[in-house]
Every structure is written in structure tokens, then in C-alpha cells.
């Protein structure tokens, strides 16, 4: 397949306000594939119907396709033309049958969009606009069709032929050479779907099969399809699928609707997974797991992604989005659903902490940078660039806020109304909000600003006391973002509570305050002692809160708040205030943090997973986000100093925690995961203390580990240090896992995230390693992506980190523009740094934009980052 590129000098801007309903619908489509890696012939038969009274021709989108045959109602079409990549057919009348034939080359499709080859199999990825790389079609989400698919291929090479929906028939090809060894299969999806949900997989695969009986008694056949060698690593994914199906029935009343649900693991994949109706295609990293090769994080991520893609069956497939500006309609809602599911499988508090940490690490910087955009964007050049943390994570927070405002029962009624009203259609964010209003009996007019305004709101909360009365003054503002210099007040659901500063007892019930105006005051009467404010409990609104709470108040809340997230947040704020003060003044007063960490670490009533999260220091990047000008070296020095003091002052406590977290054998359970998490955190602090035996302790754990969580935790500690055991561990890890592509990604990533002085040089060398390749998105993200978020190493004052990443992105853009474009944002934050670093980062962005033949994906990200 040829590599079609659009000149960056004249990109087409797609605007939401220009939306127009389709001129033609395609209620049915039949696809016939003659599969071959070098030349796959695709015959498409479309039943088309004119939408309304107009004389506009039928426009079928294509991307690097050449029409070999075009028939209208069985007769060679007359007057058809090509408008750029699109096929234009003039038609009279209201209904026709269109037949086209094209030939594509999957093995040359390095973009991994459309039909492509991966590890000997053929597979598809069609979201957002990949289907037009397979055949000519009106490739937009509001054209819904029923699909019938026939595949023919070499039986030895492609013994398994899968597509959307349910299987109809299969058999060996007749006629010709009896030893031809070809076979065919037909599939039919009875539910209308947009082209982005089309899927096909052909390969030498085996399945871990199971069954699920729905709440109405229907039996569904389940299959996790992988290479035979990977079959033992699929039990966790299959179990997660069954849990997801049962959870969606219990919580949302949504039942699966086909007789078959298949998942296929693919090594080369731009995303995490894809929710194609009945045939989910997954990045193999989100399917394959066993204790020796997968960390607890991997296990959790697999369960979450399996759930996410399954939940899309209703929130994305049965009800899809009208246009790509409504992307968060399906993604934000489904992220909210998968987060809720994951919380129900373990600790809700720890899950909430993890989700908020992710939001702050990716979405908050996006909201404050040149690529900031609303949850429902107004325009784009390349839609793949809008698969962002704003669409997914902030979109989920918007749904969560509506759930909070409505309450559980009304929110469930609203989602029922939404699914019932829009089943089988392409809906909008506005449609969803209206259902919330109708079923919830609320007015969300002002709340809609969450969909239209970019930026992270900032809330100031100042509590003052006069005798038995306290006043809480709240104020909000939303900073300017590109194209939106002036913002209107948002609706902010803030959960808050007061605690007695002496007794620690609650002084009132938790309240939900809807902050709608620029400022608001709340008065508390009849207070018997000095109150301490707990605010934005459970992170009820995705905002930045600034309060007049003292270090003493924060330490108090970290020990007494009855909301786990608020308790964690108080600890983090105490640490953050201490670190920012150290960076700006050069003075580090660590006593309050040390005592707060001691109290948490030794509190036997707390869940170990929560303890591990609470005692971790904020990341270098998050500390930098709090500062006007980021000083990576000063931040690193301040953070390391506090880590060192915590390690030394609490040496006995860390060792007790470490020794207490030992286990006889691996077990995947909330308690066991918490113990391993504490063990890793404690080991890190012991190493930070400079203890003479730290390296031996880490290496001993590395050698004795019976699971990847302990092994990688030890490896990370060693990789960050200077012991000779570092080299031994890296070589041992490599020798053990060099044939396991997914685990080798961890080897590259761990080194790219190292805090050592020589990380930039080490990463440059790793880019020339025989096992490094830009052709695989996972490997590119493991090295290039990880290095670019390593704040200290990437921002080496020499600029070598910027140069290296820009070189890699330019090279990657020639292979896979979509993956390359997603790695641009770290360079785009140049305005946050000192003049010297900023100039170097900007120069690399300018070099990227000036690259001949740059893809429109990269052009959009890099050019916007220069603004």
C-alpha cells in the first residue's frame, strides 16, 4: 500500500460547525477478501440510498486506493472520477448497488491503519479513518451498515478466519488444483455499525475458549485468540471478560447481544485495543500475562482494557457517535465505566488515587499547553491526534461529575434512557446530557461548559474562624487556552467536610457544594473547636485547589481524614509544598513530611496498597507543573534530598515494611498486590538512604523473585544506582527475556526512565541496539516515549535529549505517523522552561515542521506546539 501524505503547507481543517448529514446512506455492505500479504483483492458491494432531495453525487472515501472496477447496478459506471483520494460517482434515482474492486498490500502497510500484517497474521485497525485504506466507502461514523464478509485464503498460512458478528459458514475451496489448500469463511453482523468498527483477522491462531450465560439465559461463546505459544498467558484476560460481562449486566442492565465474542492479540498495534463489534483486536500487552512476565500493573491494566472494550458494546457500538467531535461520548463514558469496574474489583480508594495521578500526569499538562482543547473539540486537521487524555480521562471526569450531581439511582435511570432512546443510532454529547437532565430532573445548561471550554479550573478555598462561626470563601477561575482567552464560570461539584483540629472528630456531615459562580461563601455555625477543611473529597471535581491550610493542617488530615482520597491528597500536598519551597528557596524543612509518612507507614489499620501510594513523593514532572518556570535539576535535587532524608530517618520502618511484605508464593489478590507494592516502595527508600547493603538487597530480590513485579521493582532500584550489580541485573534480565517482545519493552523502558546522570547517553545507545525498532509502536513508546517524560534526562541542559527525540520522531513519521504524532507533546511544553532550554526545544519543533514530506498528523501536533 502506498504511503499517501498531505502537504503540511495546506492542511484541511475540519470544523464541527460544518457538520452535515450524509448525502447517501449504506444500509448494507458485502465484502469479499481474497487474502494475500502482498496483494489482497477486495470486492465491495454497497447498497446505497439517497438521503433527502438533492442531486449531489456519491462520494466514497479512499486512502491510497486505485479503483480497478466500478459498477453501478451491475453495469460499468459512467462518469466516475477521483477527487484526490476519493471516488466520486454521479447517480440519478434514490437507490443503487455499487460494486468496486481494489488491490491492497497489507505487508507494506507500516501505518498499521486499515488491513496490515503483524507477526504472520493479517488484521485490521479502522478507527478512526482506516477503513478507507481497505475499500472505497463513506468512512464516517454516522453511516451505519449491516456487514456480510467473505474471506478466502491459504489454509496453511491463515487457518483461522475471523470477522465481526456471528459465523455463517466455512469450507474448503472447490475446483482448481486439489492441493491448492485454500479455504473460506463467511461472517455476518446483524447490527448496523459504522465502518470504523469493521474488523478482520486471518492467521495461525488458537483460542482459549469459554462461555458466558447472559441474564436472559443466552449462551455466548468466548474466545481469546493468540499464537499457540502464548495460550497459557490468556486465562487472566478470559476471566476479566467474564467479570466484565456480569458487571455490566448488574450495574447497567446491559446484556451482550451476539452468540460469539472474540478477542485477538496482535503484536503491532497503534492503540491499546479496539472495540470492533464481536471481534475486539488487542495490543498483545493487554492480553498476555503470567507471573513471570507480567507485573501487577500489567494484570490490572489487562482487566481494565478488556472491560473497557467490552463495555463499548453498548457505549460506543450499539450507540455510536455522530461525528468525531463527539468522540468523548463513547470514550469518556466508557473510561468512567471501566474505572468503576476496576474499583469494584479491589480497593476503590487506591483505584481513585491511580486515576487521578494519571489525570494529573497527562491531562492537566495538556490543558495548560499549546494542544489544549475542549472535551468536545471545535476543529481538527487529523482526528487521530484527538485521542487524548482530555477526550478519555477528562471526559470520564465529566461523566463522574454528572453522576455525582444526579446520585446513583437517577444516573442509572439516565443511562437507561440514553441506551434505549439512541440504540442503533449515532448520537451526540448533547443527546447524552439531555438524558441526564430528563431522568435526573436537573438543569445542566451551565454544566455544558465542561464540553466546550478547555483548561483546568482553579479553585481557591480559604477558611477563617471567628468564635463559633467559620466562613469558607470559594472562588474559581479557568485560565486562557489557545483560541479561548476568556472563560465563563463552570459548575464544580465539591464535596467537603470539617474536622475538629483537636479531637479529629467530624464537625459536620459531608456536603456537596455546587460552585457555579466566580465566588461563593459558606458559613458554618456553632463550632466548638478550630475546624480543618477537607475539600474536593474523592476528587469530586477535576480542578486544582489552593487553600490556606497549614503544614500542620495537612499533616493532621493525612492522619485523621475519613475519606481515603482526601487523606492521600493531604499527604501529597504536604510533600508538594515542601518540595516547591525547597526548589524556590533552596531550603528544605523535611520534619513535617517525615512524621506524616511515619504515621501512615506504621498505621496498621490502613490497607498496604493505600500506604504505598500515600508515602510516594510527587513526581518530578508534577512538581514542575506547580512552578512558573521549570528547573529540572533543582527539582531533582530537592526531591532526592527529601527521599534521602525519609530513607534515613525512617530506616527501621522501611526495613520492617520490607520484611513484612515477603510472601511464600505469588498470588494475584488485592492483599498480595498491596504487599508487593509496599515492598517496592520500601526498597526504593532504603536505596535512597544510601544504605551500604541496598544494592545487595535489591539484587537478592531480583534473583529470588518468582514474579515480574518483584523482579522489575528490584531492577528499577538497581538501574537508578551505580552499583556493579546494576550491569549484572540488566544483562541477566536481557538474557532471560530477549525472546519475549513484551518483556523486553520493560528492559528498554526501565533504562529510559533511569534517574542517573548518564541516561541521555544510555538511551542514545539503546536506539542502536539490535532489538530496538521504530516499526513496533510498543517498542517506540518504551524507549522514546518513556525517555521524553523523564524530566531530568530529557531536559538535559545540552539539548541532546531534544535532538535525539526529534530525530526519532522524524524517522518514525515515515513509518507510522499516528504513533509519531502522539510523542510530540513533551517538546511542545517549551514555554514552561528557561530561555536556553525553551530555545532548543522550539528549534527542534521547527526542524520537524520543516521536514519534507511530513505527515499531516505530525504537522498538526508540531505546528500547534510552536504557537
Count the strands?
31
Total DSSP helices: 28
Class from helix and strand fractions = alpha+beta
Radius of gyration: 28 Å
Strand order of the largest sheet: 6-5-9-3-2-12-15-14
Compute the average pLDDT: 97
Q: What is the molecular shape?
A: globular
Low-confidence parts lasting 5 or more residues at pLDDT below 50?
1-8
Q: Report the helical percentage.
A: 40-55%
Biggest β-sheet: count, sense, barrel? 8 strands, mixed
Strand content: 15-25%
Report, as a whole number of angstroms, the end-to-end distance.
Answer: 34 Å
Structure description:
With 867 residues, this protein is α+β, with helices and mostly antiparallel strands. The protein has an 8-stranded mixed sheet with strand order 6-5-9-3-2-12-15-14, with no helix packed on it. A 5-stranded mixed sheet has the order 17-18-19-21-20, with helices on one face. Strands 10-11-16-13 form a 4-stranded antiparallel sheet, with no helix packed on it. The longest helix is centred in the middle third of the chain and has 22 residues, at 564-585. The protein is globular, with a radius of gyration of 28 Å. The model is unreliable at 1-8 (pLDDT under 50).
Amino acid at each position: 500500500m502506498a504511503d499517501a501524505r498531505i502537504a503540511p503547507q495546506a492542511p484541511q481543517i475540519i470544523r464541527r460547525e460544518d457538520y452535515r448529514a450524509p448525502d447517501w446512506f449504506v444500509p448494507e455492505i458485502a465484502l469479499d477478501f481474497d487474502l494475500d500479504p502482498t496483494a489482497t483483492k477486495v470486492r465491495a458491494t454497497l447498497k446505497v440510498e439517497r438521503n433527502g432531495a438533492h442531486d449531489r453525487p456519491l462520494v466514497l472515501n479512499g486512502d491510497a486506493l486505485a479503483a480497478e472496477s466500478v459498477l453501478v447496478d451491475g453495469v460499468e459506471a459512467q462518469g466516475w472520477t477521483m477527487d484526490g483520494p476519493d471516488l466520486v460517482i454521479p447517480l440519478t434515482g434514490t437507490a443503487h448497488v455499487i460494486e468496486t474492486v481494489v488491490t491492497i498490500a497489507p505487508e507494506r502497510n507500516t501505518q498499521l491503519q486499515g488491513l496490515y500484517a503483524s507477526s504472520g497474521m493479517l488484521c485490521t485497525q479502522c478507527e478512526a479513518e482506516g477503513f478507507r485504506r481497505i475499500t472505497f466507502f463513506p468512512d464516517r461514523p454516522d453511516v451505519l451498515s449491516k456487514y456480510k464478509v467473505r474471506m478466502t485464503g491459504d489454509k496453511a498460512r491463515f487457518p483461522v478466519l475471523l470477522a465481526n458478528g456471528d459465523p455463517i459458514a466455512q469450507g474448503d475451496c472447490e475446483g482448481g488444483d486439489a492441493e491448492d489448500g485454500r479455504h473460506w469463511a463467511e461472517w455476518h453482523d446483524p447490527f448496523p455499525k459504522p465502518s470504523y468498527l469493521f474488523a478482520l483477522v486471518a492467521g495461525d491462531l488458537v483460542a482459549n475458549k469459554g462461555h458466558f450465560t447472559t441474564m436472559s439465559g443466552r449462551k455466548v461463546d468466548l474466545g481469546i485468540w493468540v499464537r499457540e505459544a502464548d495460550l497459557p498467558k490468556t486465562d487472566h484476560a478470559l476471566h476479566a471478560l467474564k467479570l466484565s460481562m456480569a458487571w455490566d449486566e448488574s450495574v447497567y442492565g446491559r446484556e451482550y447481544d451476539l452468540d460469539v465474542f472474540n478477542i485477538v492479540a496482535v503484536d503491532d498495534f497503534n492503540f491499546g485495543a479496539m472495540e470492533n463489534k464481536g471481534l475486539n483486536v488487542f495490543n498483545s500487552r493487554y492480553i498476555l500475562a503470567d507471573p513471570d512476565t507480567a507485573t501487577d500493573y500489567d494484570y490490572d491494566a489487562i482487566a481494565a482494557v478488556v472491560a473497557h472494550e467490552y463495555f463499548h458494546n453498548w457505549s460506543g457500538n450499539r450507540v455510536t457517535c455522530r461525528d468525531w467531535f463527539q468522540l468523548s461520548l463513547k470514550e469518556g463514558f466508557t473510561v468512567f465505566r471501566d474505572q468503576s469496574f476496576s474499583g469494584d474489583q479491589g480497593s476503590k480508594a487506591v483505584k481513585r488515587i491511580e486515576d487521578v495521578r494519571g489525570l494529573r500526569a497527562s491531562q492537566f499538562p495538556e490543558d495548560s499547553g499549546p494542544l489544549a482543547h475542549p472535551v468536545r473539540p471545535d476543529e481538527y486537521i487529523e482526528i487521530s491526534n484527538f485521542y487524548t487524555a482530555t477526550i478519555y480521562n477528562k471526559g470520564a471526569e465529566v461523566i463522574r461529575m454528572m453522576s455525582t450531581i444526579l446520585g446513583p439511582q437517577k444516573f442509572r435511570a439516565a443511562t437507561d434512557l440514553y441506551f434505549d432512546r439512541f440504540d442503533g443510532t449515532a448520537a451526540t454529547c448533547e443527546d447524552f446530557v439531555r438524558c441526564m437532565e430528563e431522568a435526573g430532573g436537573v438543569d445542566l445548561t451551565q454544566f455544558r461548559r465542561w464540553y466546550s471550554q478547555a483548561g483546568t479550573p482553579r479553585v481557591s478555598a480559604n477558611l477563617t474562624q471567628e468564635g463559633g462561626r467559620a466562613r469558607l470563601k470559594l472562588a474559581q477561575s479557568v485560565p486562557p487556552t489557545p483560541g479561548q482567552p476568556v472563560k465563563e464560570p463552570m459548575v464544580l461539584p465539591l464535596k467537603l467536610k470539617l474536622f475538629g483540629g483537636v479531637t479529629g472528630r467530624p464537625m459536620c456531615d459531608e456536603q456537596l457544594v455546587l460552585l457555579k459562580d466566580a465566588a461563593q461563601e459558606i458559613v458554618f455555625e456553632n463550632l466548638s473547636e478550630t475546624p480543618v477543611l477537607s475539600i474536593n473529597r474523592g476528587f469530586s471535581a477535576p480542578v486544582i485547589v489552593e487553600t490556606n491550610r497549614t503544614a500542620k493542617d495537612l499533616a493532621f488530615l493525612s492522619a485523621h481524614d475519613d475519606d481515603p482520597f482526601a487523606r492521600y491528597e493531604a499527604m501529597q500536598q504536604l510533600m508538594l509544598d515542601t518540595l516547591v519551597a525547597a526548589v524556590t528557596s533552596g531550603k528544605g524543612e523535611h520534619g513535617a513530611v517525615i512524621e506524616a509518612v511515619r504515621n501512615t507507614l506504621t498505621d496498621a489499620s490502613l490497607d498496604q496498597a493505600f500506604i504505598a501510594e500515600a508515602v510516594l513523593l510527587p513526581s518530578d514532572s508534577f512538581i514542575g507543573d506547580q512552578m512558573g518556570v521549570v528547573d529540572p535539576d533543582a527539582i531533582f535535587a530537592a526531591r532526592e534530598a527529601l527521599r534521602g532524608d525519609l530513607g534515613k530517618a525512617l530506616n527501621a520502618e522501611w526495613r520492617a515494611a520490607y520484611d513484612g511484605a515477603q510472601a511464600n508464593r505469588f498470588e494475584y489478590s488485592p492483599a498480595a498486590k498491596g504487599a508487593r507494592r509496599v515492598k517496592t516502595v520500601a526498597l526504593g527508600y532504603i536505596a535512597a538512604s544510601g544504605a551500604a547493603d541496598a544494592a545487595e538487597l535489591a539484587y537478592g530480590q531480583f534473583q529470588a523473585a518468582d514474579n515480574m513485579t518483584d523482579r522489575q521493582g528490584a531492577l528499577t532500584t538497581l538501574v537508578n544506582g551505580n552499583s556493579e550489580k546494576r550491569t549484572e541485573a540488566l544483562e541477566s534480565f536481557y538474557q532471560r527475556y530477549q525472546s519475549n517482545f513484551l518483556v523486553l519493552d520493560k528492559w528498554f523502558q526501565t533504562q529510559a526512565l533511569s534517574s542517573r546522570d548518564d541516561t541521555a547517553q544510555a538511551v542514545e545507545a539503546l536506539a542502536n541496539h539490535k532489538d530496538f525498532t521504530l516499526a513496533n509502536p510498543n517498542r517506540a513508546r518504551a524507549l522514546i516515549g518513556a525517555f521524553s517524560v523523564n524530566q531530568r534526562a530529557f531536559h538535559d541542559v545540552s539539548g541532546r535529549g531534544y535532538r535525539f527525540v526529534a530525530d526519532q520522531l522524524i524517522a518514525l513519521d515515515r513509518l507510522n505517523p499516528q504513533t509519531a504524532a502522539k510523542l510530540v507533546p513533551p517538546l511542545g511544553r517549551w514555554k514552561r522552561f528557561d530561555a536556553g532550554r525553551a530555545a532548543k526545544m522550539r528549534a527542534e519543533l521547527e526542524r520537524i515542521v520543516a521536514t519534507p514530506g511530513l505527515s499531516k498528523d505530525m504537522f498538526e501536533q508540531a505546528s500547534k506546539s510552536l504557537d
